[in-house]
Amino acid sequence: MAMSSGAVYVGTTVSSDNLKGFILAVVSSAFIGSSFIIKKKGLKRAGASGPRASSGGYGYLLEPLWWVGMVTMIVGEIANFIAYIFAPAVLVTPLGALSIIVSAVLANFLLKEKLTKMGILGCVLCMVGSTVIVLHAPDERTLTSVQEIWNLATQPAFLLYTASAIAVVLVLMLHCTPRYGQTNMMVYIGICSIIGSLTVMSIKAIGIAIKLTLEGNNQVTYFQTWVFAMVSITCIVIQLNYLNMVSTSS
Questions:
Q1: Fewer CB atoms inside 10 A, N or C side of the chain?
Q2: Model confidence, pTM
């Protein structure tokens, strides 16, 4: 009977953590989706008086509205980061698609960008896809140290994927961006998407490390924690840079 009660308790805890992660991920999507629109308005203002971000200009750094959007995005990313601490990545990550819907709706009202039938279809597909994945999200495997994550991340299959992702990103950055970036936003979107897959992994690792540390199992002393932190920071900076270029590309 005691074992049965314990199992119920564990199951309830897991379910509660998933709910917290779900709510945080939804809130995060709302903030991040809004930040794209606010930042784009700031980028347009900056581009009216100097080089556009898609052309390599950084005048938007002096635009207050862009910084309002950046702060909004940071709040959303913090909520997203905490969501990864509580819930599995397979539950949190798909909910990021909701930010697309928020951006599309706000763009229609604030930027006067008409939402076409294909855009509406895309939003519906985002909602359906996110719902299906969330409803079938598996329980997360319990990890006891960041070293376990490191062992998983250094498996040959994942190392091969990481090397392939980095190679593709370098080709897009060094070859495709100078030639096609200003006329085809898919170059920038491709860079952000591929880098994003590595961001999710590293952010999840940092989240678990923080959770374990707060529970009394200190992970700060492991060098793997700092490697994941550096990977996270690098990936986020790259994504922010190219997201700004997406917002101003023609």
A1: N
A2: 0.67
